[in-house]
Amino acid sequence: MTTGPEVRGLFDSPTSTFSYLAWDPATRTAAIIDPVLDYDGAAGRTDTAGAAALLAMIEREGLQLRWILETHAHADHLSAAAFLRERTGVPVGIGRGITAVQANFRDIYNLGADFPVDGRQFDRLFADGERFPLGELEVEVMATPGHTDDSVTYRIGDAAFVGDTLFAPDYGSARCDFPGGDAARLFASVQRLYQLPPETRLFLCHDYPPAGREPRCEWSVAEQRAGNVHINAGTREADFVAMRNERDAGLKMPALIIPSVQVNIRAGRLPEPEDNGRRYLRVPLDTL
């Protein structure tokens, strides 16, 4: 008996990101989760090959796309949500915490008072505990902040799409030093995930495998509780917070944080063209 969605993961090697296509087997109703816009930082060029692969998968499987869902405003890749929305007319959803992220980064990028920080760039802002249908299945939104203010997990039956709340057991957990990040909140969010049934499939947004292991998108709650090197069933909050804060202090910024965040707080839309017809991304100096 099927207790959750069919899931296909698409791995973007340059950013080590998994995008997902999840659907109800009974009705073929689907959602795309965390789509990636290809971006060549050296040339300042975007491409939609990854997003097109998701659309081709939808056609091949005979699916009806209903949602484009973001687990948070990512700092390591640009979102293809706007491209997919334009192509399909399907709404884009994210957690309500995006408003705090927008407020923080409006100042950092000096986007001006006319840049709205109420989340209106997205079609739907989800509250913690909100539920909505995906065919005959139900999506439950779980607020899982800590990495960012807006981080959410989408639970669909026995599957949960956790964004950056957890990484693979051999890699651990996400950083908490971005504006709005907090290691104690991340600890609490992981405890919510660990309270799910042990067989629950956790689908990760990233994987950075050690030599000899292929990228893997899916781990069970039981596997994470037993073996996560940063936060397992026996980890104390104080120890996790101390480890996370010390580790974060030595990390470099993600390679694509500057272009990605200013696009992703716009729901994947690129900045409007200037008077010469070209679009520009801003680089705040000596800030991050």
So, CATH architecture?
A: 4-Layer Sandwich
Per DSSP E runs of 2 or more residues, the count of β-strands stands at 15
Instruction: Tell me the helix content.
Output: 25-40%
Do you know the CATH topology? Metallo-beta-lactamase, Chain A
Contiguous low-pLDDT stretches (5 residues minimum) are none
Approximately what portion of the residues adopt beta-strand conformation?
15-25%
Instruction: Characterize the overall form.
Output: globular
Number of domains: 1
Distance between the termini: 49 Å
Class of secondary structure makeup: alpha/beta
Detailed description of the structure:
By secondary structure, this protein is an alpha/beta fold. It has one domain: Ribonuclease Z/Hydroxyacylglutathione hydrolase-like (Metallo-beta-lactamase, Chain A, 4-Layer Sandwich). It has seven helices and 15 strands. The strands form three sheets. A six-stranded mixed β-sheet has the order 1-2-3-6-8-9, covered by helices on one side. Strands 10-11-12-13-14-15 form a six-stranded mixed β-sheet. A three-stranded antiparallel β-sheet has the order 5-4-7. Helix 4 (183-194) packs across helix 6 (237-249). The mean pLDDT is 97.
